């Protein structure tokens, strides 16, 4: 059964509004007109295509020109007394066999015609199933066939079989609505269903034991747009491949099965009641109902396509929202009478679904009538069911009092609210059903608790709040409320809020009380959980702040705020460290300028991955290790190799980039190596360019990393820049492009102190990362 719990909008308009002020009506009229124009254009195009094909055939057979073929076609049409299009269609039809026009090969078309002829001559569905299997499906590899008829109650009835035992047919003669079968799935989806075996969708079906591993296909059996059943085919060991040709054959066989299953096939020239004998019975049934009802019959065009539903009968209880009499609706199309019912998920969609599948439909509907540009709404619960080929539409308007009572019940359920009333004059206590559940009692018990006695159910710590509530209510005759823990006899504790008001008599006497209980247990435990979460979050934030402060102090202790490096032989050096603006982003950037034994100078910058205390401690470990290793006199490449081992074995999985350089003032030779870091930049003769990139992975990546060492002879007046990526890194630009942009506007003639300050000011970095910068000028 198709059930729609939510309200579906059904818009209704009187015809006068459809083409006038109503926007939806104007749109519907425009769509109809455009559809007619498109159909006319398609017809004309198809006619021209047929005429051109006929002219081509004449040109081929007669060996004439296109003009002569056109003249010959005109003469044939004049002699036959037909239009050129009719003559062209005859010529093309003679040249193209029917099977080819249907898109089937000759052998396939022959089998299909044999099956059709045998099916039409068959006296029952059993013979039809046998004909379909023997003439059309067995040559394709099928071993069994079942014909299922769709019943109005959404169940399936076995109408005919072939290749299946009598005992199995007896077991599956009727399939209830909720049983999942291939036929049910094909009927619901309204399209062919192919299965390699039943277990693929967890379905069951006839001959499931004997043919469990065989492939199956379920094809909806349609006639005039209405699905009357399903043709189920069981393949042999090798199912045929799913091709367009096979799909066309199965669709044609489904139509053959549909004609066999349909007991009331429409006759285009007969009256509605002659075509649909059930209409008279349905009309009598509708007149006997206490609710409004419409009897609808399908309207099918000449091509067998469903276009609308004809309103055959309107019962006396029906009231048109637009105020039209019943006689004005009878005989009109549903879309003609109510054009806005064609809205998505509206009335027409529901009727079409019921007509096509036979599944009943029940759901609330909102009826909207548009009269003189004013919308008139009413609510109803609609019920749709198919009877033969016709649909019965019944809707029951909800009384306002019933609707409000239903709304109140849902509100009480959602709010977990229970009501009570106590009459002090008679001693009678009235509870609604939820209150019994709240106290853990069975509805109908005589153990109702008087308001004065609720203290025996209250937790000891909450007695004072309950006594204050009772005193305000019973002694001072004022409304009161209280929250307490309710301890039931079954040892279950509930958190309760109670609110009540006094009922006073004419003389001001207290005649009774009424009020409500609300179960707030879920709210209470939610608040407890939130409080615990807030406390844990506050503790975590405090820890994070403390770790950030420690990381910042450690960073500041190593990267001192001094703006000038120690004096170094033959060099003028300026250093800058710019920390991240946000404390939690304190990173592991470092720089170092260190005199070495023999007069040489160590220059280095590095960047440890990550932020926080771990990055800061990793930076300290690598910087100090490099200082100690540099005292050995080893070159930059060897120093980075050792520093890589430190990252792997003497720290907690630290990875970092670095560039290490050793300058000899006597020879002015600079030797350097890099570990995944930006290369140094040399400023010479007012031009800035990065030094060549040498091979070298970042520190801590692999155990056996090699670092290529390179050298350059510096000249007097040269300036060397070494920095971390925080100086140039941008979210929207590649690192190399950002570096080139910065070097293009480098202030070449400035002293090193001014140079580093201007570089920091002109930096367009937007990642809020730490930045270390060294500028070295050669004397």
Short description:
The chain is an alpha+beta fold and 779 residues long. This is SpoIIE family protein phosphatase. InterPro entries: ANTAR, Bact_Sigma-Reg, CheY-like_superfamily, GAF-like_dom_sf, PAS, PAS-like_dom_sf, PAS_fold_3, PPM-type-like_dom_sf.
Shape: flat
CATH topology of the largest domain: Phosphatase 2c, domain 1
* Unreliable spans: 1-21, 96-103, 263-270
Structural class: alpha+beta
Query: N- to C-terminal separation?
Result: 93 Å
SS strand fraction: 25-35%
Which second-level CATH architecture of the largest domain applies?
4-Layer Sandwich
Taking the sheet with the most strands, its summary is: 7 strands, mixed
Percentage of helical residues?
A: 25-40%
Radius of gyration over C-alpha positions, nearest whole angstrom: 45 Å
* Number of beta-strand segments: 28
Kindly provide the name of the CATH class of the largest domain.
Alpha Beta
Quote the average pLDDT: 79
Domain module tally: 5
The number of helices is 22
CATH level-4 homologous superfamily of the largest domain: PPM-type phosphatase domain
Folded structure, characterized:
It is a single chain. The protein is an alpha+beta fold and 779 residues long. The chain folds into five domains: 2-15 and 268-400, Beta-Lactamase (2-Layer Sandwich), CATH 3.30.450; 21-101, Orthogonal Bundle (Arc Repressor Mutant, subunit A), CATH 1.10.10.10; 106-261, 2-Layer Sandwich (Beta-Lactamase); 402-519, 2-Layer Sandwich (Beta-Lactamase); 551-778, Phosphatase 2c, domain 1, CATH 3.60.40. The chain is 37% helix and 26% strand. Strands 1, 2, 9, 10, 11, 12 and 13 form a seven-stranded mixed sheet that branches. It has a six-stranded antiparallel sheet with strand order 5-4-3-8-7-6. Helix 2 (23-62) crosses helix 4. Pfam families: ANTAR, PAS_3, SpoIIE. Residues 31-92 form the ANTAR domain.
